[in-house]
Known about the structure:
This is Molybdenum ABC transporter substrate-binding protein. The protein is α/β, with parallel strands linked by helices and 258 residues long.
Amino acid sequence: MRRLTPISRILWCICGAVGLAAPAGAAEITLLTTGAYKPVAAALVPRFEQRTGHKVVLRNETAGAVAQAIRDGVRADLVVLTPGGFDALIREGRLAGAKPVPLATVGIGVAIRDGAPVPDIATPEAFRAALLQARAVAMVDPASGGSSGIYLARLFERLGIADRMKDKLVLVRGGLAASRLVSGEADLALQQTSELLAVEGARLVGPIPAAVQNHTVYAGMVPEGAAEAEAASGLLRDLAGPDAAPVLAQKGMAPPGP
């Protein structure tokens, strides 16, 4: 029998250790999610990975970009999107499978840079005044397909300030609007609460007034034909399970309700 050299013994031990660390049957799950839900997924995924040995590759985009990626042929084992986004993709024949499972709901909030004066946003009138008094307001570019940006553009029309807001908007094509507070580009940031809370150096003032609020539901679906459907279904159960509730609260979201 051929003897192993010292270096070969080391490599053999390393390979054995790697084999033990990656259980047989471990899967690599691709999770494609909207940006608003990403902070929750990022908090829950490590627990799932540790318990199951599976690995999750997390990719996030705006809701519109997630839908477009699927139209462009991107394959994912688990998709998190709005129910409306799923309905459109299913009607178009781009997705099929079990009914999407509601995971979370979130409203739009207002953030400022840490240490900046806190504006009054308690009523629609006060919120409108705060927007008009701000030097610059950061939000997701509606053209990028972000749910909050699309809604806010319509809200400005309802409030009668769309024309006055045009020159002060700092539009973010996906990503975190509150990052523009930290950079000094904006005084206010408007986005879903979970995304505002994700930016260090930004402070959440609170939700926009209830009379003009818009809550978005996010759901998860394992597409028919997913490469890792069984493992992805296990991840979806975790995301929809009772252990998700405290994480949702911490990240500015809430359970979707009945």
